[in-house]
DNA sequence: AGTTTGACGCTCC
DNA sequence: CGGAGCGCCAAAC
């Protein structure tokens, strides 16, 4: 477990249900600005070993689901998010103003 | 150790 | 709104 991954997962665990964040912002808040792409690798490393990390709350800047992981499928991610109240529009994207996570938001 | 790939993002067009 | 180009960093080759 690298420092980067630990910082990332720690930050991710602070995000409450029904809230989402994009890769770049997650990296930024975790203290690794510019590591947006690396976030994908870090989340891909997630599996059954880290059930406490809400990987499904991470989507891309466009507000759409990006995963292509066979273990954590886009379908599963969308289901999990919808179960938390996150709504997707006709284009399959979410509204950041409605569901975006604000760091200063109380947990 | 050099290259290629990929759950990204920003800027143009 | 959709797509191409480029910079980004870690992992996989």
* Cα end-to-end separation: 25 Å
DSSP summary, beta strand count: 2
Would you tell me the overall average pLDDT? 92
Overall geometry: globular
In percent terms, what proportion of residues is strand? Answer: under 5%
The structural class is mainly alpha
- Give the strand order of the largest sheet, numbering strands 1, 2, ... along the chain: 1-2
How would you name the oligomeric state of the polypeptide chains in this document?
single chain
Helix-strand string? HEHHEHH
Main beta sheet strand tally, sense and closure: 2 strands, parallel
User: Nearest-angstrom radius of gyration?
Assistant: 13 Å
Number of helices: 5
Low-confidence stretches: none
Proportion in helices: 25-40%
What does this molecule look like?
The chain contains 5 helices and 2 strands; from the N terminus they run H-E-H-H-E-H-H. With 107 residues, it is mostly helical.
Write a concise synopsis of the structure shown:
Helix content is 37%, strand content 4%.
What distinguishing features does this structure have?
DNA-binding, globular, two-stranded parallel sheet, 5 helices, 37% helix, 4% strand
Helices and strands in order:
Elements: H1 3-12, E1 21-22, H2 23-29, H3 36-44, E2 58-59, H4 74-83, H5 96-99
Parallel strand pairs: 1-2
Helix pairs in contact: 2-3
The chain binds a DNA duplex (13 and 13 nucleotides) through residues 2, 4, 22-24, 27, 32, 34-45, 55, 58-62, 65-69, 72, 74, 77, 91.
